Queue: 4 jobs
Job 1
Amino acid sequence: MHIHPYERLWIRLSVIMLIVFGIAIALSSLTFGIEIPGATRRAVATGLPADATPEQSWIRELGPGRYEVNMIARMWGFDPNEIRIPKGSTVTFYLHSQDVLHGIKIRGTTVSMMVIPGQVGRATYTFDEPGEYIFLCHEYCGLGHHVMSGKIIVEG
Ligand code: CUA
């Protein structure tokens, strides 16, 4: 079969790109610890507070500058949707969905994840800079998706 030289060039380029992207994904997941949600993040996973349930939200101070937030995502809001903490606090978020797939992205931080019904999303972040950190739902979840937000106020 005759293959035009340009055609052959493009086929080779696409294969090279696939290999490069594959290496990039492997490297970034090894270097930055990026994980996809799996069995270890299910609601039954150990290491979660015993009372972390999808029904009840709370903000709890574990010690000086250490907080735990049990957060509920539902159509179309977060509970709690306003969190006040002092500067320098390390916060661990546990996220539950009461209905459909949601997401959370806390602007200006590394916290960004899907909130999957039946699983608990967990993320920890240290808020070193005072200010207002808006968080949003970033998975389309219905008519009110665009109003699903809240804020973290870090007092200086
Ligand atoms: Cu919840 Cu979009």
Note: The beta strands are 58-63, 66-74, 77-79, 82-86, 89-97, 102-106, 112-115, 121-127, 131-136, 149-155.
Job 2
Amino acid sequence: MIEPARRVIRAAERPITFSGAGLSAESGVPTFRDAATAGLWTKVDPTRLASPEGFADDPELVIGWYAQRRRRLAGLAPNPAHHALAARPDIAHITQNVDDLLERAGAERVLHLHGTLLEDRCHGCSHREPISLADPPPLRSCPRCGAPMRPGVVWFGESLPTTAWSQAETAAAACDVMIVIGTRAEVYPAAGLIDVARDAGAAIVVVNAEACRASDRADHTLIGPAGTIVPALLA
Ligand code: BV8
């Protein structure tokens, strides 16, 4: 199953990747769906916490949830899929993930559509600050305007960062192969990039632990762990 997909990727002139939580799962980062069963967040609904409404309802709970995720991420490491992607400087990596494992593996061209855990931003103005994953900040006010600071991620109902989004759209429309790694492709507008690539004539290669919406639109679907399949695909 892997050989035809490998050939398509080898022949590609403008390959890109589009990834979700499944890329980082083998590093120990729980996916959003696992969150409900991982025991880490069983008492909370991630889609509720990852929203301005959830933050307004209980800012302490939301900041505590992110602090727990940040401290966990501090102790994790890239897996073989991150390293295989980082070893391809010719490939642009569009990701929904908010971790820095691709960068820690050495990847330089990473577009974070949903922001990053590595910084806080003000909920009221444009002020941003890097934070320590190992020692994340508590709920606090913006030093510039006094509004609450919150993680530099995109919450449900919030718009995506304009630069990253426009660069991702351009890359998806120009690519000839899109490798879709570890995403259910249910969160929009990010998941729409698969259709942008497909409509532009690109071949879609899906790597996922289970069949999902992305595989419905794929030319090649490889079911299994990204940490094993991605290095084999790019070898
Ligand atoms: C927007 C950052 C509009 C935060 C995330 C009602 C009101 C408002 C908006 C909406 C609405 N209804 C719908 C919407 C749109 C909404 C949306 O799509 N909702 C979904 C639930 C239907 N989208 C938004 O709100 C977006 N913004 O629309 O703004 C707007 C426009 C103009 C002006 C103002 C507003 C913003 C969405 C971004 C949300 N933020 N993350 C944080 O992390 O805390 S999304 C979050 O969930 C992740 O980032 C990720 O994107 C998503 C989870 O998806 P996946 O990554 O796919 O993860 P999942 O667990 O689902 O799947 C993992 C897959 O990997 C699985 O298939 C699994 O089998 C596989 N896997 C597991 N292990 C492995 C593996 N595969 C391979 N190997 C393994 N080892």
Note: The CA atoms of residues 132 and 186 lie 31 Å apart.
Job 3
Amino acid sequence: MAAALAAAPDATVGLVVLRVGRLGALGAMIGYASIDEAEAKILTQMQLVLRVGDRVFRIREGEYAAVLANLRSRNHVLLAANRLVRDFQQPLLLASGPVTLNAVAGAAAAPVDATAPEPLYRCADLACLAAEREETRTALYRPEEGAVRIEHAELHEAVAGNQLQVHLQPFVEVASRRIIGAESLARWTSARLGPVRPDQFITFAERTGLIGELTRWSINATLRLCAEVLRSPEAPLVSINLSPRVLIAPGFEQLITGALTFWNVPATSVLLEVTETALMEDPERCVAVMTRLRDRGLRIAIDDFGVGQASLSYLKRLPASKLKIDRTFIMDVVGDDRGARLVHSIIDLAHRLGLQVVAEGVEDEATLLRLAEMGCDLVQGYHTGRPAPAAEVLPLLVQAAPAPAR
Ligand code: G
Ligand code: G
Ligand code: MN
């Protein structure tokens, strides 16, 4: 890479960092030699997908890079990243048979994003994290992301010192328009940086390992605030987001059950939101943990449904009770006929599997009415209530709980 950068200091040089999941599991399933074989195949395939002159490298197991010399524009590096990720939709053909892996890719380009190898790698690496949240599973480095330099110590201290806030966003039952619960969303205003966007500090926490502490904080802070409301006989639900790795981390089950006991909250009042990405990491383990949690009475929701890459076969096995359709699909419900049909089909599919459906990101009445026609059970969005400090939303939950449908 250094050579490519030095050879043409003014030309646009792209860097794609590609992360491939599930390679480790492959070893356990079909033998460790298969990892080497898969890596060799991945590098060959990457080379085939790219142009002559582009170079591919192995960084470490499961992480690869492509250096694209002489790009016509910075956007072309994102196109290359898209092609690389799309290639993983086809199974990789190993000697023992085909295996399906999944990949995300982050892209950055010199000289706009950085001019030296290290900082350019850092940009592509940051983009890779952002990519996990994108529909395409790819992302181009966004300078705003790098600009906020969260420091490990300050987020650690904020979490340890209970300086984050719990905001709640109501869930509304479509048929009755009653609030039946709320999602807990963390907010952080740092003394040094001001308000930090949640996706930024959550991503930072995920990447630095602070996510374990942050989740413990989130569970305890949410249950502490909501305990009283959640103990009422016809209690509303409160949902807590779990980052992919958290659910399958050792000790998570003790953490959640311990917190329920400590705050004296019935397990049935708590919904855990898990994204499809979690399922991709270690599906067997994920299903096992979720099943034990469900058996203890906790409810599970599949969050951001539709933008991940989870195969529909997992949907069949998951002990979830709710499916949250990602807001990117809900935006299309009015005005895009095919988009609306897709949402309608997801609702039917979920119902056939015995799941309740939550539509995320409902921003207007027209969308809510369309969703009602489609049989959607619950909505969440700016139209029915923005995320707000817990103290503002809790009174709505108290009122909501015992009231009969109007
Ligand atoms: O809160 P929005 O308002 O911007 O949240 C952005 C993202 O951050 C969402 O994907 C949400 O799931 C996630 N998020 C918010 N709070 C928490 C939390 O306490 N834990 C985890 N893991 N994710 C959270
Ligand atoms: O990934 P998750 O579903 O947990 O993220 C919830 C995110 O959605 C939060 O960032 C929250 O602020 C945001 N959100 C909630 N309602 C709406 C809405 O109606 N429109 C938009 N654009 N975002 C919303
Ligand atoms: Mn969520």
Note: The longest strand covers residues 179-190.
Job 4
Amino acid sequence: MKREQDQDIRKIIHIDMDCFYAAIEMRDNPSLFGHPIAVGGTSERRGVLCTCNYEARKFGVRSAMPTAKAYQLCPDLQVLPIRMDEYKKASAIVRSIFLEHTDIIEPLSLDEAFLDVTGTQECFGSATWLAEKIRKEIYEQTQLTASAGISCNKFLAKIASDWNKPNGQFVIPPEDIASFMPNLSVGKIFGVGKVTLKKLNNLGIETCGDLQEWSVVSLSEHFGVFGQRLFELSRGYDERPVNTSRERKSISVENTYAEDIPDLNLCMEKLPNLVERLKQRSLNKIEQGIKGLFVKVKFNDFSQTTVDSSFDHIELHKYQVLLEQAFMRGQKPVRLLGIGVRLNTDTEVQLGLEF
Ligand code: TTP
Ligand code: MG
């Protein structure tokens, strides 16, 4: 770990729009305000929700939930079709606002970005005031609200933007890190997914405070290279720079089928189309070389498996080999098939296609 003062000097803002797609739908049709709404695929076509507004969240409705399940939780839910062009337009306006304040911007998705404002002269150099100003400008130009987190690194700024959501912001100043971290749930740590969370919980680790009692050596024994990251993040330490030129880590295409595909042969028939789409999507995007290919299969009971390989060319017969392995793991009807390539860097671009 480097010297503490290294991270004190940075000023990072994380901006995240509030229920982004749903907020755009409400803005464009104000009669929807106050009603539970979501954006996503229809239940007849076995779609999944992209997001929902806060009224719908009160019923337990969430992003990535199958639409049919969302209706069970909230029978009055209105599910609206995805209008990606509108979301992209709003995102471009938001990004142009960021650019007026800093060049060091790392977009994470259409609705979320890190800004490094360390050197700013605006707002008397206060990142907190600057975040207020940016949110106000976003509202004036898009009629959409955003939340912001302000701290000295990306990890803490992202945690902070969730703290007073929606339409709020929260600052974690360097002098508060030591008191802030112990109560933070380990589930909030960047990179801790379901599996790692379970493993941590089984070790009796629920909070970053619990984690802080472990040595790097013990954490590395249990979590490999991630042990070092857990040691640092549990203390609120994160050196990652705001990366203005993120490169893709993988490119993939996937389809959720309107009806389950009952057997392996019929799954195989779907592959050529997916491979063609993947080739088109990958054009000019894989200069850094392919590290491997993968196939993802989701079965009709929602269990999911991914088979990876180190093949380095997009070829149908290679995906056939992987698909067979993936299918044999479940041997059940399939609702979703995905294929992709792994590249050598940072961002994940997923292009979901529903037929
Ligand atoms: P999020 O910022 O995760 O969610 P949100 O903006 O809808 O809600 P919040 O107020 O909690 O920030 O994602 C931004 C947009 O990305 C979201 O509006 C829709 C899309 N999205 C998907 O399409 N699928 C997903 O699984 C998620 C999480 C988001
Ligand atoms: Mg958001």
Note: The CA atoms of residues 12 and 153 lie 6 Å apart.
